[in-house]
Amino acid sequence: MPSMTHSNERRFRPAMYALALIIILILGTASMSDVAHGAGDDWRLMVKSAACVQGPVVTLGEIADPIEGLDQRSWQTVGATKLWKASDKIGRPVTIDRAKLYKVIKYYIGDMVNNLVLPSQLTVQTGGRVVTSEELRARVVAFLTPRANDLGGDIEFKNLKLPMHYFFPNEYDKLTIALSSDIKPGRNQIRLRAMSSDGRVQSGKAGTVFINVWKTVPVAAKPLNRFERVTQDKITFMRVNLAYKPELWDGTDGPWRMARTLGRGQPFTPGHLEQIPLIEKGETVAIIYKSKRIKVSMKAVALGEASMGQQVSVRNLQSNKTILATVIADDTVMVR
Question: What is the mean pLDDT of the chain?
Fold first, then answer.
């Protein structure tokens, strides 16, 4: 009899251990329903608009973040709640709208779906990684800022239009940012690329940004006429947005004169200005006659305009003859 008792104990011992383990797990593990009811109706989760999941089943913690009402331990339990089967198409995003998302989540967690703040749509990808709209915007602004500062003035980014999110097929893919051309005031096109670890382009997306550049520039202090010389007393300054007036004179170089008329308070553009020629029509110039043996200088009146090295007709004030001479310096021409 004693031998049979010991034999039975040995036979049922594994079953007793398994039953004890099950009891411990049941008593020691809280369900989402238990945790949620314990927290009352004040807890909230924010469902993301884009998320990557590892599979094979999507969990609540992969697509949502706690907003309020759940401590860390409770969130671990709630976040582990299993939802639908993850897509078996690795690296291929799948999008679901809010109405369908509500029904799907309600199927798994019941009325507790009302404690979730749902986006207009959720895009989920199995594997890889996602750059969210917030991160994408921050990365692009960080890229643009030092380049825009080189334009000078006060910089403002407006109408920054980017993708809602950017999914990468592989976890180690990198985001690269570039501009389609040199940065400038006004509209700029942004190029986004997903690059693999070996430098291959996986995919590409585009964005745009409008850059306001406020800068103080010269403007006409009074109405200016054609051929009028631009001097300091005819210039004042005004703050303008270069996004709408991209090509303005910066007040340098010269001397200048007006190539066309300009109204009071209007900014100077390169088209309004032209270099003052070394010889202007009607001014008195020195005309030099030079040969192998002699060099003679006398006065003449310019009958046209010319710059260095150009020819211009002048009238000799002594002989009253018109001759063609070459400009060699300011107010100086030569006849060989």
Answer: 87
